[in-house]
Amino acid sequence: MQVLDTETRIRQQIADNPVILYMKGTPEAPECGFSCATVGALHKTGKPFAFVNVLTAPHIREKLPKISQWPTYPQLFVNGELVGGCDIVLGMQADGSLQQLLESLPAAG
């Protein structure tokens, strides 16, 4: 079994999951207010999303900002593209564009 380097693993996670949130903690137990607010906005869409707890994945926590060119967490990716962090996600949720973006994704399965 080949062990993937961190950058390859991150890129594969982003490619394999239409919606993935890199966050501190888990959706059930966020470990920072920004992650909690972002999870809340995603839950309001009713759409599923994957997540990675960067607190338990220090290599990902260190490497992802270099890949995404985004320095802070959480980081939301949709269809392989960085959407942004908490402020952007909350703004999109408020204006309806987050719902529209997630509605436009093909159904899983």
Automatic annotation (TrEMBL):
CDD domains given in the database record: GRX_PICOT_like
Keywords for the protein's UniProt record, in alphabetical order: 2Fe-2S, Iron, Iron-sulfur, Metal-binding, Redox-active center
Domain of life: Bacteria
Species: Geopseudomonas aromaticivorans
Classification lineage: Bacteria, Pseudomonadati, Pseudomonadota, Gammaproteobacteria, Pseudomonadales
Family: Belongs to the glutaredoxin family. Monothiol subfamily.
UniProt xrefs under Pfam families: Glutaredoxin (PF00462)
Official protein name in the record: Glutaredoxin
Glutaredoxin domain residues: 19-83
